[in-house]
Amino acid sequence: MRVLLLFGFCIPWIYGQEINRDYSPLLDKNTSAANPGIYLRIMPNGLAYLREVGMKVINEQILKLQLPNIREPIENGEVSIYNLLMSKYWAPQEYSLDMSEPSTFAWSMSKMHLRAAGDFQATLNSPLLLPTVPITGHFEALLGHISLYITVNMERNAHGAPQVRSTGCRSSIGYVDLNVRNTGVITDFFINAFKAFLIGNFKPQVEQKMCKMIESIIDRDMNILLSNMPLKIRINENNLDIIGETFGVAPKKHNRAGKLSSFSAKNITLTHFVQRLRDKELVLDYQMLTAPFVQNGAINMLSKGEISFRGHGGTPFSPPNIRIPAPHGSLFLIFSNKFNLFSGVHMIEFYASDYLANSMLYHSYRQKFLDVTVGPESSPQLQGLLVTTCGPAGFCLGEFLGTLGEQFPDRQVEIEFFAKKAPLIVFIDNRSRFRLHGGLNMYVRPSKPTQVKQQILKADTTMTANVNLWINGSVIVGNSTIENLDFKLLETKINDVDQDSFSDLGLFGAEFLEKLLTEILQMGIALPTMQGVILKSPKLTFHDRYLKVSTYFKLDEEYAGSLVRGAVGKTLRGPLL
Q: Which domains are assigned to the chain?
């Protein structure tokens, strides 16, 4: 009996929880907390382009690097090299970047040559010389036919940032030609013997140390940099310097929270509503859910893709199950140093499920960012409409809503709108559908000192609209069509206004809102970009529960060069050899 009573009490509670949910139940269907909200795919063409630009930047920057002093024990003593400079560099004649499933890439270079010069000091404990006699001089070395082969595994650290780990390295130097000029009185015979000794002993050590240096850069320095990658960004950032922040070269950002939090929903200009919403403290969390992986020659990254207030999370629903098509159209060549990019083959694919938009809408609703107060000043279209006494055009709310004009002549009308649950947006083929449930309170404003603001109407409303978006240059624009607009009258102080007459407002309101929403969408939203990365010919399409942006891109090579100098410079300040 107690079980039945408990069950009887629980059923209404459970049902009430379902009914009182503050978001659409559709967002709980066919979802999983393990699903990504964002899916980024770097296509083979993009990787081939990165390989070419990377090689070009290395070729341009390598002679600008400041090499560290070297102090190396050898079998019979110690050699110190200082004032070391690279005087000439011959770029590798062959190089390649190859992907291997599940998560490995291999970088190889061959037929590369270096010429370096510097001063040396050698202390040799040998029967040929007194143990305490140092040998000093100047040398010039030519390292010919250098080849490198490096394999790296892509991983994810505990915080969701990318991580790399070297899994193999082979280096070889085809030959070493060494010229030594001594400043002392040592004979040419000894100089030649010493040169032969250095070539025979130093060449294998240099080959070994080259791999140790590269492995140290990958396993230590690169992961230190990657661990600093910002994993949360404000959605009002149009030009993200994620790379610069990761490499520690980006300028510091100023705290704009005070300015942003001062935004008021009172008397806003409706056409700027979307931009003002972006200026709220809404933060995108794009930490990776899994390690990057290789599929069909492309690198894939799955990110959380949640937008929440100040990045605190807490979205009560999960991303939907979506079917991302396998990479295709990979018309590229990777061999030697040849690269062909065929027309029509994009370089990056960006997928975002409608979870990205719905999480933003949910937290905007929870923070009351969607609640607005509008009046005649909020839009040019509203100037002659939200009044009780019509102007020359002869049409206004005073004429349309019963005896409003007679009861409250020469007054402005103010409407407070508030969302009653989180809006819903669903991506479908070729468009998106938007639904909004809200309430509105209608007031007449005072026009004389003796008058007060007075509430005259209270209602609920539901709007369903179709939204089309596309990319025009670097701006996302669109249009909207209202599919349905319903009003439910709750209270009124206006004579001759009942549910039937008030429902007719939906016919006019739909046309007005359609024009207003289209005007807002036509203002456009700047497509977020990354500092140093220029998007070329981006294309946006809608699919079942996700949108896709495919694009070419171009790197700012000067910016990339500054990153290389900064990153490698930090590494070379430590002992490498």
A: 65-230 (3.15.10.10)
